Amino acid sequence: MQPQNDFLLKKTITDWISITKEYAFHSFNESSIIYSTFPQFLVSIDKNKAADLGVSVSDVGRTLETMLGQRRVTTFIDRGEEYDVILKGTKADFKDPTDISNIYLKSRSGELVPLDSLISLKEEATASRLNRYNRMRAITLSANLADGYTLEQALNFLNEVAAQENDIEGAVDYKGESQLFYEGASAMTYVFILALTVTFLVLAAQFESFVHPFVIMLTVPLGLMGAMFGLWSTGLTLNIYSQIGIVMLIGLSAKNGILIVEFTNQLRDQFGVEIVPTIEELCEKVDG
Q1: Which of 1.10.1040.10, 3.30.70.3270, 3.30.420.10, 1.20.1640.10 would CATH assign to domain 177-287?
Q2: Are 9 and 171 in contact (CB under 8 A)?
Q3: Distance of CA 110 to CAs 55, 70, 106, 113, Å?
Q4: Spatial CA neighbour of 61 closest among 6, 103, 110
Q5: Where does the sequence pass through the membrane (predicted)?
Q6: Using CA atoms, how far apart are residues 244 and 238, in angstroms rounded to an integer?
Q7: Nearest 5°: CA angle at 105, between 102 and 106?
Q8: Which helix (H) or strand (E) holds 199?
Q9: Are 1 and 139 in contact (CB under 8 A)?
Q10: Predicted model pTM
């Protein structure tokens, strides 16, 4: 989930959990939810006062960065090696928020201005770890499927919730098994289309005709309908294993069609026999 700011981040995750817990699809992992338990100070700059005293906002930022963290100011070369020059304050001098009063900035007029006269501190709680996904603040919500439900059913349910609940703001994306599920479903569609195209072209080159491959591949839709009916009647889902089985079923169906067409053409060319009786005889041999 990728809301636009921290407030929406917390609101979105709370709304999603409250809605989805009404159904028995999922068992949420509470450890995956980020709580605001880490203290921090929010620094606000009085821009008008800083401008009156001749101090820019960037000067305030660089000063805080240098004294409370560190900043690379330049480099120097010694015996062919380049070294960074790091400028930072002493940690022992800044153990308490009130120690900021010991920091001064130089204004444009050359006077020293105390930093605490330009800023205000506000203590607040935030998450100890800030996750990002696709360059946006995000929370990863993980859950275990309840017994009797599939991943496809759970994802369809979550997509319906995201589409119907207008109060839930933010973008939704998938990771892990959910992402692989969608990518695999999309990839299998292209694989089937590519396989049918390549098979048709190979058969057309083999029989030197565009009609015979079309006749052979008429068995493919029948095989697909039979496979889908079998999955539906048994309550199974279209997963990677069933997709592999469908590919094998299509191959077996096409193999019988190729043999029938090949032998029919040979008998017709060599002995001039009629097509319909020959096909009936070959079908009996193939089935036997």
Answers
A1: 1.20.1640.10
A2: no
A3: 10, 24, 6, 9
A4: 103
A5: 187-207, 214-234, 240-261
A6: 10
A7: 140
A8: helix 176-207
A9: yes
A10: 0.42
